Structures are given as C-alpha cells and as structure tokens.
C-alpha cells in the first residue's frame, strides 16, 4: 500500500528515532545553558569581578 513495504519501514524507523533523540538532546542542552555558573546548579555564586565561563 502506497509503495511502503517492510524493508522501507525497518530503515526509516531507526532514522526517525535518531532524529527525535538528537532534537531532544539539543533542546536539553539549550535549556541547561540558562543555569551556567549559577548557584542553582553548581552551588556557588560568582565572586565580584569574576567572569562567567561562557563568552
């Protein structure tokens, strides 16, 4: 039906899973950048005059 066969599905499903996992990993990394050098994540505050670890 619609030219889809079992071999096609066995090749597309892993690629789709990889794509979803990659997307979720990127979103989690993006979310965690909000907490860099903040006491909520690392348990310390920056000293006066100390630069954050990201540019």
Automatic annotation (TrEMBL):
<keyword id="KW-0496">Mitochondrion</keyword>
<keyword id="KW-0812">Transmembrane</keyword>
<keyword id="KW-0999">Mitochondrion inner membrane</keyword>
<keyword id="KW-1133">Transmembrane helix</keyword>
<comment type="similarity">
    <text>Belongs to the complex I NDUFB1 subunit family.</text>
</comment>
<dbReference type="GO" id="GO:0005743">
    <property type="term" value="C:mitochondrial inner membrane"/>
</dbReference>
<feature type="transmembrane region" description="Helical">
    <location>
        <begin position="6"/>
        <end position="24"/>
    </location>
</feature>
<keyword id="KW-0472">Membrane</keyword>
<keyword id="KW-0813">Transport</keyword>
<comment type="subunit">
    <text>Complex I is composed of 45 different subunits.</text>
</comment>
<dbReference type="InterPro" id="IPR012575">
    <property type="entry name" value="NDUB1"/>
</dbReference>
<keyword id="KW-0249">Electron transport</keyword>
<comment type="function">
    <text>Accessory subunit of the mitochondrial membrane respiratory chain NADH dehydrogenase (Complex I) that is believed not to be involved in catalysis. Complex I functions in the transfer of electrons from NADH to the respiratory chain. The immediate electron acceptor for the enzyme is believed to be ubiquinone.</text>
</comment>
<keyword id="KW-0679">Respiratory chain</keyword>
<dbReference type="GO" id="GO:0045271">
    <property type="term" value="C:respiratory chain complex I"/>
</dbReference>
<dbReference type="Pfam" id="PF08040">
    <property type="entry name" value="NADH_oxidored"/>
</dbReference>
<protein>
    <recommendedName>
        <fullName>NADH dehydrogenase [ubiquinone] 1 beta subcomplex subunit 1</fullName>
    </recommendedName>
</protein>
